[in-house]
## 1
Amino acid sequence: MRAKDQPTALDLPMVDPLPPETAKYFDVCQDKLGMIPNVLRAYAFDIDKLNAFTAMYNDLMLAGSGLSKLEREMIAVVVSSINKCFYCLTAHGAAVRQLSGDPALGEMMVMNWRAADLDARQTAMLGFAEKVTKTSAEVTEADRQALRDVGFSDRDIFDIASVTGFFNMSNRVASAIDMRPNPEYHASAR
Amino acid sequence: MRAKDQPTALDLPMVDPLPPETAKYFDVCQDKLGMIPNVLRAYAFDIDKLNAFTAMYNDLMLAGSGLSKLEREMIAVVVSSINKCFYCLTAHGAAVRQLSGDPALGEMMVMNWRAADLDARQTAMLGFAEKVTKTSAEVTEADRQALRDVGFSDRDIFDIASVTGFFNMSNRVASAIDMRPNPEYHASAR
Amino acid sequence: MRAKDQPTALDLPMVDPLPPETAKYFDVCQDKLGMIPNVLRAYAFDIDKLNAFTAMYNDLMLAGSGLSKLEREMIAVVVSSINKCFYCLTAHGAAVRQLSGDPALGEMMVMNWRAADLDARQTAMLGFAEKVTKTSAEVTEADRQALRDVGFSDRDIFDIASVTGFFNMSNRVASAIDMRPNPEYHASAR
Amino acid sequence: MRAKDQPTALDLPMVDPLPPETAKYFDVCQDKLGMIPNVLRAYAFDIDKLNAFTAMYNDLMLAGSGLSKLEREMIAVVVSSINKCFYCLTAHGAAVRQLSGDPALGEMMVMNWRAADLDARQTAMLGFAEKVTKTSAEVTEADRQALRDVGFSDRDIFDIASVTGFFNMSNRVASAIDMRPNPEYHASAR
Amino acid sequence: MRAKDQPTALDLPMVDPLPPETAKYFDVCQDKLGMIPNVLRAYAFDIDKLNAFTAMYNDLMLAGSGLSKLEREMIAVVVSSINKCFYCLTAHGAAVRQLSGDPALGEMMVMNWRAADLDARQTAMLGFAEKVTKTSAEVTEADRQALRDVGFSDRDIFDIASVTGFFNMSNRVASAIDMRPNPEYHASAR
Amino acid sequence: MRAKDQPTALDLPMVDPLPPETAKYFDVCQDKLGMIPNVLRAYAFDIDKLNAFTAMYNDLMLAGSGLSKLEREMIAVVVSSINKCFYCLTAHGAAVRQLSGDPALGEMMVMNWRAADLDARQTAMLGFAEKVTKTSAEVTEADRQALRDVGFSDRDIFDIASVTGFFNMSNRVASAIDMRPNPEYHASAR
């Protein structure tokens, strides 16, 4: 039986005490988000793993890119919808609602992205993310060219591929260990 | 048309000159492996992305774990076989051949892991990796318990999940951008 | 281009004026729900079709049954999640939130029902609904017996099968004609 | 063990005596078809459910439509072939043979509709029914437009969607409760 | 456009004149079956290919085996149903009807073999044929043992595997070249 | 437990002594290949079955055809990769390496044929083989015409279909009885 406060089905308690750098990072989360996302608590049994995860996450989702932060979150949710990852749909669905100011858009990404009235660029972006998620072995140059044709650069294509790949990892880790999202997400930005 | 030396289908040249740390790391690769793996060259257009990738990779595949390095490579190849990723099957198939000293084992992981005569522990490990790859949303506590029943700790389960997740990311990025393996892998450890 | 107010992608205006019985039914909806559900407006181009739909719907979802109304709505959402029907996930996800008073439960049914901590009875019920949705041809007596073993009667099994079947119809009609849910559902019972 | 005469695997006897309206309807069936279709006997444990089913069925399959009765039966059989529903393939396969006077056409609908030499209109119709059955979430405006391009009206599209949806319901209910077709169908119109 | 009499979509006329051995074999077919099965006419553009096909077919389906001829035909139809091969379903569906004297059994094999009330032995046989057809890479010793447990010998298992394999070949060749069955099959043994 | 030397999981010893024709054929194999392929030993419990298998195999893979022997082996490996057949991937992967003199080409066929830089003709050939393997029921005249458009004759199309069909048989038989390849293949032509 998992303890009420335990973020996953695994009995892997956080390092105690947390190293000062980590403690400070968690304090920032608490201040800015009003919570420490459970994914961070889940990795905090091993600070190297936590740091590797956050470094990659922050680079992909927050660093400079030809994709807006909202677009990266849209990819995150579409991938998570295919993989039916409860954690990621909850956390990143909230992010789409918040960044877009459009709660229905968040729901569409969770439920069926084709229901959204997207322009050609975002349709191509999500179509590529879907194909890479479902049948990556069938991707060919024609698929990349279709992205270039709607204005994406090669660097943008790298970013679409990377974000898609990242959530295919994250979805599987979260589902494999039954990671549970912070309850605050559900009502956020509705 | 991609240049002969280009590691992917994207026109994203390496930072030039490489920062000293990176240059040194590449030299170590050249010395120890006789090559710079193309995945590193592919990420070297952006040193932050390269560092995030190598930090996570090295932690997962080389740091301490209840899983042997060979077992982690076996998971890598089984996942890559499901996703039919040419890059990862080539590079990590070679690693299985090398670490095991058993070329046929490498081929079995590439072709059909059920052909290998594995013990109950490794069968459960690869069965879990397969399920997490194909239908992660259907993983339940019974699947985790089956791993515990053959002797895996919760920390081991985390590692199986993480390695499985990582190659589900890597496979997709590699296929999405048509990353090509260094030709040296093909004849290695046959 | 569909008109802003049009509930589907098809140009099939409502009968005008509506017959008195229908007008009255729509008034009741407006009073009780604060809206006329778009599915009713979508069928109202042909009153016989509307009546056939509402008769079946009301019998299945509102008439007496060994399944609670909430349980029937849970089945509705799980089926719709498999079929990724934006309309039904939106409308019936709201119903689960409302009937259960548990917004997270509604999200779990939409995102991945296995994330919910359900008892053996409801787990069996949703597992059967999932199998009937995905691979109905493989249902055997053992599947029905598993429902009896957790306390369902033959009549209950009929009801689980019927509700599952109904949403497999409804999901497909809604997606085939791009039926859009009333926007009021999104914020309801969060 | 099911009784020899029982139309499904569930022990749900018909209301006894049947209400006069129902008894009369069953008499008409016996006179016109030489049998009471088992689907009616299966629903007759609850007259409201029976009436809701027959009202929807008769409206969809027998009322006026831009689709001929044969075309609606062709859709019924193609959907049932995808879902491998023994009851519906038997009953509606017979209907295609009878309405078309072409036994081989009935067999083609049951076995593989692409084997039939159909015109562009019927090919589009069955292709749409197949997509709505298998991957309804991927239907887009382009699919509807393809139907309009071969001459279907928006009302016709509604009818194709509705018949397709209906048999996706009916197939699942029949398989879930192991409904068995009347034996008379097998030799009919060969 | 294919000629009316042409057995496939390919323009590959029969050797003319047929060699005496072949002509004699075709005469025997005409006498015993009332027709020359189109599969023989389809291969008769090359007598070596025809002979290789008939030698394998006759050995598998007609030579001594622990499986009855009917059981081999049941496997043939179940495999062909999964692959939706119009030619083989038509020809071998007729064979099941004829050999069993039970038209409904033939229909069940075509439509959904799980609808038939089979004993444990035949259920295991068809379950194995289904798994070998759909997911042969997942067959393990446990699957073979399940066949031994209901009384099959290792030789019988070879025969089940061989017949299953053969129709997975035949179905694909027939569908790939649009081979059409002789119309006589449709009404046969109804 | 299978004996060390036994080529499959079934206890079906070779006819002893082998008939002179068979013994001679096996001697030729030993001389030319340095081994007797295990598939021949597996069928040698019944000489009629062995002869039927070798007659078909030799006609398909070695007799005259518009497809080169290498092309036929490429099809063999691509089909075996989809079906994940350890025996056929091992034996025919070696054949591709040997006939092409290009070890990487063999690996690409095993791992993901889309990774190879093939011309339009071979791309169409393998695309057709893939479709016939995965979804033969959906092959239409357009697929055959696409082969004609890149220069294949109707006879060539027959050969592509036949080789594809054959390995869909062979893969399933090999996996169903756990046929193991001769170890010599692994290091061959690397």
## 2
Amino acid sequence: MIAATPQPPYYAVIFTSLRTDIAADYHQTAMRMVELAEQQPGYLGHESARESIGITVSYWQSLEAIKNWKQQTEHLLAQQMGREQWYTHYKTRICLVQRDYGFEKI
Amino acid sequence: MIAATPQPPYYAVIFTSLRTDIAADYHQTAMRMVELAEQQPGYLGHESARESIGITVSYWQSLEAIKNWKQQTEHLLAQQMGREQWYTHYKTRICLVQRDYGFEKI
């Protein structure tokens, strides 16, 4: 679903990735990371899709919240597994969301 | 592919959407919009994936470049078609990319 984020300003982390063909533990860990992120202070939501590339955007109240999530112990292990096993290439972009607008069909 | 963006700061537009089941003209228009965006001054790249939701992130040099793209004539028509035909729900977030880092397997 589209994340129900509050009025800006807030932060977004855009994580774009290319996968290897190693499937072991990937989906299980991805689901666990969502579960853990949702428990982090300052978490506001996330959106994710994968076709030829994967894009996951997570939303946060502050840079401090993003930093804490990056350093969460189980997440650090997942990041290491990501580099060793699951990804050939990724890019993480830390962004300040300055403005948003939307549309919803009645 | 993962967009080869320059050193931050630069801007990102995160467009998250849910589709209707109306396929007519959608893919053709989406491809045309990429072609047009690439010709816009200040365009830096884009990334896109769709599963249960679609996420398209486009990258830009400035807010001015984003505004000019939003108001591009053919793009305005596509936005209108989007609301009338292709999307049940979307959200657009305008972001300042403050920092990025990545990983690439050798």
